[in-house]
Amino acid sequence: MNWTAIRAIYVFEMARFFRTIMQSLISPVLSTSLYFVVFGAAIGSRIDQVEGVSYGAFIVPGLIMLSVMTQAISNASFGIYFPKFIGTIYELLSAPISFLEIVMGYVGAAATKAMFIGVIILITAFFFVDIDIQHPLAMIAFLILTCLSFALFGFIIGIWAGNFEQLQLVPLLIVTPLVFLGGSFYSISMLPPVWQVISKFNPVVYLISGFRWSFFGTADVPIGISLLAIAAFTGICLAAIWWIFRTGWRIRD
Amino acid sequence: MPPILKISNLRKSYDGGFEALKGVSLEIEEGEIIALLGPNGAGKTTLISTVCGITTATAGSVTVGGHDIQTEYREARSMIGLVPQEIALEPFEKVINTVRFSRGLFGKSSKDEKLEQILRQLSLWDKKDSQIRELSGGMKRRVLIAKALAHEPRVLFLDEPTAGVDVELRKDMWDIVAGLKSDGVTIVLTTHYIEEAEAIADRIGVIAKGELLLVEDKAKLMARMGKKQLHVQLTEPIDALPASLKSEHVTLSEDGAELIYTYDTRGERTGITKLLAQVANEGLTLRDVVTRQSSLEDIFVDLVHEDKEAAA
Ligand SMILES: Nc1ncnc2c1ncn2[C@@H]1O[C@H](COP(=O)(O)OP(=O)(O)O)[C@@H](O)[C@H]1O
Ligand SMILES: [Mg+2]
């Protein structure tokens, strides 16, 4: 394993993040604050409590997930798409590194950035609502797993994308709806029965539910199933990446 | 000594089925500068890309320092540095960081003295903290070279290093190449400028339409294929060529003061003695005699031309 190379990629990618640290952080913090004002204060004053938790606190896990997933995807997809776009990918392809090492560098950096933003949002949330986290270790584990699996997914999108529109397409058309419909702002049990069934096909439901369980000890689906779902998603992404690199799809002519 | 780079019967077909390399074989000795000369679309970049791991070969094999580029890609690639044809750099990155990144990618720890030495060698040390986008085109090309040298490769590939570069920068580039050679780096460069191959290469390979037409020592190539011209300057201009001198090899200059005899150095006999005897027989007196070697350009045009005729 060429650890030096993995570290070189990781450091280089993190440097890009820190170069634009203000943009990187201000936008999620600002949008989270807006969500708290709109959903937590305006709507929450009418909803009162969901599953024994104040509405403002209830949406915190969903808000974190929303940002973490989109950030992990956009960082990882951009991270690998950009070298393809400007041509610097030649260097990765001609270096004595394996595809696994390339993935570890890029996905590791993207996951770290997403994690960073997730933590910042959590800290922001403490300013708006009272939360005490019941299973902090599980919370951190969920956060890390989500960052990693969605960064893997983003990496695939970055390899697949042939232009900037496609790069934005998947996050915009698939991920954002899935996250919004995945119970970020409500409990699945609040939906009519038909939609409850449909929601079971949304993988994000399991992630948000599991993450929320780590906060409040209550969940829409059993925690074991949540863990299985995220493990399965990670597995599928890993298999896809393994196939991409074996065949050189969209990377090597 | 075994060759540092051995390319055997390398073929490359792109997805559309277009065959860009049609079985290229080439051996390169350590320490030499070899120029691959060929027109645009000849397959030069494809050849380099395949050796360096950017594209995968359809058939054939390549070893670098005895290591196969497929099965022992780590060892093989560690020995190679690549300067691509197109300038590809992260615009907002600092020079020093991008060079450090390259070194890291090749698994070498960041040795600051080494980075400094490379940047100084390429006159980039003053610019080490500049962002890439602030640099001129020539400087960017130097950064590409610095990146390629960052891991101290033994073979350096330069893909058209002076395409679209002004005369002064081209001379700079030649000096850099000469400096690298004296450090013992083997250099493979591609170019479509004949003068470039002529100026800096030890050996020249001519490539056209995916085939390596020949590879030869530069001096030998010139001698073997070179046509020479003998310019016989007369003291008294003449109106027309005397009948005894008429041949397809002899022409008279416009002012009538010079006979130009073209001969092939490959031939057994150059025919110079006979020509001069005939000149004397005609009673012409000589003022001076000059010979001129034809440039690689003529050789190149001949080769590609012969190739066409053979194909027809
Ligand atoms: N990715 C590609 N897909 C299909 N054809 C290609 C690709 N890259 C190069 N070619 C074709 O292969 C031939 C050789 O190209 P190239 O190696 O770039 O030539 P050179 O570097 O000598 O100018 C050209 O006809 C070019 O159009
Ligand atoms: Mg080329």
From TrEMBL, chain A:
Pfam family name, one: ABC2_membrane
Subcellular location: Cell inner membrane; Membrane
Keyword Transmembrane helix: yes
Classification via PROSITE patterns: ABC_TM2 (PS51012)
Residue span(s) of domain ABC transmembrane type-2: 19-248
Topological category with respect to the lipid bilayer: Multi-pass membrane protein
Main subcellular localisation: membrane
GO molecular function, one term: ABC-type transporter activity
Superkingdom to which the source organism belongs: Bacteria
GO cellular component: ATP-binding cassette (ABC) transporter complex
Keywords: Cell membrane, Membrane, Transmembrane, Transmembrane helix, Transport
InterPro entries with a match to the protein in the record: ABC-2_transport_permease (IPR052522), ABC2_TM (IPR013525), ABC2_TM_bact-type (IPR047817), ABC_2_transport (IPR000412)
Family: Belongs to the ABC-2 integral membrane protein family.
Name under which the protein is recorded: Transport permease protein
Source organism of this protein record: Sulfitobacter sabulilitoris
UniProtKB/TrEMBL annotation, chain B:
Alphabetical keyword list: ATP-binding, Nucleotide-binding, Transport
Superkingdom of the source species: Bacteria
Pfam families: ABC_tran
Gene3D superfamilies, alphabetized: P-loop containing nucleotide triphosphate hydrolases (3.40.50.300)
UniProt cross-references to PROSITE patterns, sorted A to Z: ABC_TRANSPORTER_1, ABC_TRANSPORTER_2
Any one Gene Ontology molecular-function term assigned to this protein's record: ATP binding
Domain ABC transporter: 5-234
Protein name: ABC transporter ATP-binding protein
Organism: Sulfitobacter sabulilitoris
